[in-house]
Amino acid sequence: MADTFSNLDLDLTLLHEIADGSDEFIVESITMFLQQTPTLMQDINTAILAKDWDTAATATHKLKATLGFFGMLNSQELIQEIEQSCKTGAPDELGIATKFSQVQAFIAASTGALTKLQEETQGRL
């Protein structure tokens, strides 16, 4: 069963394909996302505020694959653009901040849906 959330930046098709019917895998994957993503988002935010572009690029790179795994393709594209901008010699600070705000909003909205799915799936175990 694949879940596509049309009003969110979230398509769990890949997660369900990899899980191959394992509710335990889905719960564990969502748990890892909910535990690791806030820390990475904070690391990115701190690095952007400090204009530490190397750290921002490293943290966005780490987050990129996770976003793809959860079908957060809009967020993944924005994070990739942030990463690339941070790697340039003169990053577009306003563009980075604007894109990161968009990613924060997408992830905040998607986190609620993931938490609900995690609870529902956990209830079936």
Largest sheet: 2 strands, antiparallel
Work out the number of β strands.
2
CATH topology: Four Helix Bundle (Hemerythrin (Met), subunit A)
**Order of H and E elements:** EEHHHHH
Rg result: 15 Å
Task: Briefly say what this structure is.
This protein has 125 residues and is mainly alpha-helical. 79% of the residues lie in helices and 3% in strands.
Task: Give your account of this protein's structure.
The chain is built from five helices and two strands; from the N terminus they run E-E-H-H-H-H-H. The protein has 125 residues and is mainly alpha-helical. It has one domain (4-124): Up-down Bundle (Four Helix Bundle (Hemerythrin (Met), subunit A)), CATH 1.20.120.160. A two-stranded antiparallel sheet has the order 1-2. The longest helix is centred in the C-terminal third of the chain and has 32 residues, at 93-124.
Kindly list the characteristics that best describe this protein.
125 residues; mainly alpha; Four Helix Bundle (Hemerythrin (Met), subunit A); two-stranded antiparallel sheet; 5 helices; 3% strand; elongated
